[in-house]
């Protein structure tokens, strides 16, 4: 008779805030202040957004060239983001992850030739008469993960670069999955645009779903996304960005789909409507046959150079037998603070 795994108590924290571009030390001081009420031993992993302390959008939304981002690039392990995360991890006795702009080594830069590229014309980008820029790969849009002893255990580079990264960043070589002690177990890290399709030919129902498929294939228990995701600008008087929440959920379809196509995938996540209680409970299926994937999205909030971020950091529970994602909780669009979710997995 197979043994029954005992339920685990998993505590995941997100820090949603509005950093000021280029003000690294003041942004770290703000983050430290937001975290000062977290008690040691009260959380298993604490997440900060993409490029958490540097900010991301400068010079009309895109870093114009490598020289614009270069002053903000950080060395792995010794940069301000790494130093802060290592200190916080030791103080709280938990894992800490945060996004940052990584400085490439001189040896790595030597093999990368500058080239002129044309930036994609997509809705989020201010269209210019000439979208050509000189691409010099001097850094990477990265994320560090520190263990409770304050040791670096993972440095992940964003795989699917967004237009804001193209002028300066080197893409990573693939998504990162690693095994940690319970209750985290197998986790996968992603950064913002990693969730988007890498192909120009895709559909909501059939994908491709690169990051979610990777998580499924690698039997991920916890998928963590560190984002700097822009607001959808839909229903701006509503405190949560439901359009963005629904899109995030739709891009995770392999983790929750039961294989039955639905006409309106945007209604696949619990959106606060009257039918919310109809969502099947994840506990109704067998964990052995249909393991749960917990998805955590840590997004930034606020405005930067005329661009508004979605906030709405969220936690989902996903099982393929359920046929729809289950939204457990989310923060508000403009909320700054720490949210710790305590769930049983």
What does this structure look like?
Helix content is 16%, strand content 25%. The chain is an alpha/beta fold. The protein has one domain (9-119, 132-260, 287-344): Carbon-nitrogen hydrolase (Nitrilase/N-carbamoyl-D-aminoacid amidohydrolase, 4-Layer Sandwich), CATH 3.60.110. Strands 7-6-3-2-1-16 form a six-stranded mixed sheet, covered by helices on one side. A hairpin with a 6-residue loop joins strand 8 (176-179) and strand 9 (186-191). The radius of gyration is 20 Å and the shape is globular. It starts with 8 loop residues before the first strand and ends with a strand. Mean pLDDT is 88; it is low at 263-286. Residues 10-345 form the CN hydrolase domain. Pfam families: CN_hydrolase (PF00795).
Please render the helix and strand layout as text.
Blueprint: E1 9-16, H1 24-35, E2 45-47, H2 66-69, H3 80-92, E3 95-103, H4 106-110, E4 115-118, E5 132-135, E6 139-146, E7 152-157, E8 176-179, E9 186-191, H5 210-217, E10 222-227, H6 242-250, H7 253-256, E11 293-299, E12 303-304, E13 307-308, E14 314-318, E15 326-330, E16 337-344
Helix pairs in contact: 1-3
- Provide the CATH top-level class: Alpha Beta
Question: What proportion of the residues form beta strands (DSSP E)?
Answer: 25-35%
Q: Write the element-wise H/E pattern from the N-terminal end onward.
A: EHEHHEHEEEEEEHEHHEEEEEE
The mean pLDDT is 88
Q: Tell me the distance between the termini.
A: 22 Å
């Amino acid at each position: 008779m197979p043994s029954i795994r005992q339920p685990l108590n998993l505590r995941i924290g997100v820090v949603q805030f509005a950093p000021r571009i280029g003000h690294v030390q003041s942004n770290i001081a703000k983050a430290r202040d937001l975290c000062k009420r977290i008690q040691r031993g009260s959380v298993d992993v604490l997440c900060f957004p993409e490029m958490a302390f540097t900010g991301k959008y400068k010079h009309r939304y895109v870093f114009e060239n490598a020289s614009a981002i270069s002053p903000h690039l950080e060395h792995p392990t010794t940069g301000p983001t790494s130093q802060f995360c290592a200190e916080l991890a030791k103080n709280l006795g938990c894992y800490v992850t945060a996004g940052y702009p990584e400085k490439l080594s001189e040896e790595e830069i030597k093999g990368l030739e500058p080239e002129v590229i044309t930036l994609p014309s997509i809705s989020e980008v201010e269209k210019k008469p000439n979208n050509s820029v000189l691409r010099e790969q001097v850094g990477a849009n990265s994320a560090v993960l520190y263990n409770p002893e304050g040791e670096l255990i993972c440095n992940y580079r964003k795989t699917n670069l967004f237009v804001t990264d193209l002028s300066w960043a080197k893409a990573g070589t693939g998504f990162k999955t690693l095994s940690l002690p319970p209750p985290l177990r197998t986790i996968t890290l992603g950064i913002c645009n990693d969730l988007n399709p890498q192909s120009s030919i895709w559909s909501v129902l059939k994908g491709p779903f690169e990051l979610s498929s990777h998580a499924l294939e690698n039997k991920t228990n916890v998928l963590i996304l560190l984002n700097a995701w822009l607001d959808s600008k839909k229903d701006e008087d509503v405190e949560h960005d439901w359009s963005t929440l629904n899109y995030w959920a739709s891009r995770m379809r392999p983790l929750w789909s039961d294989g039955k196509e639905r006409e309106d995938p945007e209604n696949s996540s619990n959106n606060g409507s009257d039918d919310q209680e109809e969502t099947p409970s994840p506990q109704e299926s067998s964990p052995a046959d249909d393991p749960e994937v917990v998805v955590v999205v840590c997004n930034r909030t606020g405005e930067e150079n005329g661009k508004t971020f979605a906030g709405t950091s969220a936690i989902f529970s996903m099982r393929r037998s359920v046929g729809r994602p289950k939204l457990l909780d989310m923060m508000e669009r403009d909320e700054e603070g720490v949210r710790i979710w305590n769930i049983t997995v």
